[in-house]
Write the C-alpha cells for this entry.
Amino acid sequence: MKFSSLALWGAIGVSGMSPLAAQPPQVFEEAIDVRVVNVEAVVTDAKGQRVRGLTAGDFRLLVDGKEVPVEYFTEVVEGTTAANTAGAGTSPVAAGEEVGRDYLVYIDESFSLANARDVLLEKLERDLTLLKSGDQMAVLAFDGSHLEVLSGWTGDHAVLAAALATARRRPAKGGEMLANQRKLQADVDWVLDSAASLDDGDPTGPSTVGAVLDAMSTRISPEARTQLGKTALAAASALRGFEAPPGRKVMLMLSGAWSLNVAPRLHGPLVEAANRLGYTVYPVDLAQSDARSVTALDKLARATGGRVAVSAKMEAFREVVADTGSYYWLGFTPAWKADDKGHRVAVEPRRADLTVRARTGFSDLSRRTENAMKAESVLIFGGAEQDRRLIVELGAPRRAGRGQIEIPVILGVPVESLALTPKGRGFLAETPLAVAAMDIKGGRADLPGSRLKVEIKAPPRPGTYARFQTVVKLRDTEQRLVFTVHDPLSGTSLWGAADFKPRPKR
C-alpha cells in the first residue's frame, strides 16, 4: 500500500465512536521490552509419575539451543503454588496462592460426530464443579465456515452450562465427512472382487493388487481436503483472535483425529499460535478415529506441552484438569527484537531419570503482526467500541482484472496514535497498519499492510485526525474490511471497519 502525504481533519463526530481525549501527541524514544516468556513444564519419572520438590537448579532452559538463566520459578501443585522452591529463580507468586486456569473449549463441528460430541459435552457440563474460584472457561464452535462465541470468559457455571447445552443442539458435520471418505471404499471393494478371479501367473495378480490397495489406503476425499484447510485455519485464528487472558491457558480442542491424515502440516499454524500465546493444547478425538490418527493428534499436542485426552468414559475434561493442575513454572526475559522470528524453547532435566513435557517455542512479534492479529480478531469476534477510533471511507470501485476490483480508501487516524520521533528540524510521524477482509461465507484474506509514515514540521493539533489515502485490491464479492493501527498511548490497537457490496449485475 502507498499512502499520500498527511493532511489534517478537525475533530469530527462519527457515529459509534467515543470522543477523542485531547491529549498532545507524544514524542517517543526507544523503549525496552521486558515481557516474560512463561513455560509450564510437566515432569515425570521412569514410571510416568509426577515428580515434586524440584528447584530451578534441576532444569536447563534452552532457547535456540543455548542455555539461558531461569529468572522466575515456582512449583504449582493441584492449582496452588507450593512452598518456596525457587532456588536460582524468583517465584512470581507467593506460596499457597491459587493459580487460575483459563480453559478454551473449541468445538470443531466439521469433523466431529454428534453422538460422541454430545456425550463429552454432557460430562463436561457435569464436571464444571471442578472449576476453582480462580478458573474460567470460554466456549467456541466452528461450523465449517464460521466461528461463533457460545460463551466468553466466565467462571459462572450456569452461563457455561447454557453454552454447552447450546453446543449440543448445533449440527455436527463429521458424519458427512466420514461418509465422503467411505465412498472411496467402493474402489477398494472393486479391486478385492476383481482379485478373487486372478491367479498367480497373471501380471495383474496378487502382488500388483497389494500394491494398488496400499496406494488406495492413503487416499483422502476431496471434501475432507478442502474442509481441513478451512478447519486448521479457523483453529489457529481462534487462538490468535480471541481474547487471551493472563495466567495458565489451556485449549480443549474437540475434533476428529482422522482429519490429520489429510495433511498434518496444515495444523502448523495452530501449534505456532498456541506457543506464541502460551496455550497448552489438549485435543480430543470425536470421530472414532484409529490409533494411528490419535497418535498424530498427540504429537501435535505435545509440541505445545499438552497431550491427547483419551478417555473410554469420555471424561476428557477431568483428565485435562488433572494434567494441568501440577507443573513447574519457569520464566525468562528474552532480548525482544520485534522481528517476527520464531525461537525454539526446550526444558531439560539435569537428572537422566526424569522426562519433561513443555512448549517448544515462542515468537518475537512485531507491531505489524500484532496489528494483523487485531484485525483478524475484529473480523471474527468483533472489537471493543472504545477502540473503534479510525474513520474509514470507501470510494467507488473500479475493475482490476477478472473477478478483481480496486477500491479507493480514505483512512482517518487520530494524531495521538502517530508516534512522533525527532527528525532534522521536524518530526517523523508513523504507525504500522494492518488490513484484513472476510466475505459472507467466512473466507478471510490478510491484505498487504504497510506503515503510515510522513514527515511534518511541527506536532499536529490534538483532537484532529491525520488523513491518508490508499487503494485496496479485493475479490469482487461482498466483504467486510477491517483496518487497525497501534495506539502508543494505550498500548492497544485502534480499529475501523467498512462493508463493501458489489454493484448489482445487469
